[in-house]
Write a structure and sequence with these properties.
five-stranded parallel β-sheet; alpha/beta; Ribose 5-phosphate Isomerase B, Chain: A; single chain
Length: 155
């Protein structure tokens, strides 16, 4: 995996995003921060969609998004074709997001998870890779459905 990663947050996720950014940089990652730059009010879909589009264009292999719960960021990011975003607040879910679901985007909630556990979850997710196998068939079905919806104009 590349040692580059995108990060983004809304105002609720700003402090945790900053903590995770410092952690990633200390681990040797080149981090691209898509905001927010300070804890002023900002709508999470604006950041999530910007980051997810950058992932879909291949500018980043992976990204981390943080809002209050992580739910809104995941919903918004998953609207971008080709992007699989997964919410994880525990190491097992983080590993499965990559291994079983090929999620390129990890979302977390700053009001749900503390910074030390968030770093652990992030580390597990970064260290995990898509395992293929039986999961490849299932992920393939999702990608096929996404293509069919896009081609039918039903997106």
């Amino acid at each position: 995996m590349s040692k580059t990663i995108a990060v983004g947050s809304d105002d609720a996720g700003f402090p945790l995003k900053e903590e995770l950014k410092r952690y990633l940089e200390a681990e040797g990652y080149a981090v691209t921060d898509y905001g927010c730059e300070r804890p002023d009010p900002i709508d999470y879909p604006d950041v999530a969609l910007t980051v997810a589009r950058a992932v879909a264009r291949g500018e980043h292999e992976r990204a981390v998004l943080v809002c209050g719960t992580g739910i809104g960021m995941a919903i918004a990011a998953n609207k971008v074709p080709g992007v699989f975003a997964a919410l994880a607040h525990d190491p097992y879910s983080a590993a499965r997001a990559r291994m079983s679901n090929d999620a390129q985007v990890l979302t977390m909630g700053a009001r749900v998870i503390g910074p030390e556990l968030a770093k652990t979850v992030l580390r597990v997710w970064l260290d995990s890779e898509f395992a293929g196998g039986n999961s490849a068939r299932k992920v393939g079905k999702i990608r096929s459905a996404e293509r069919a919806l896009r081609e039918s104009g039903a997106e």
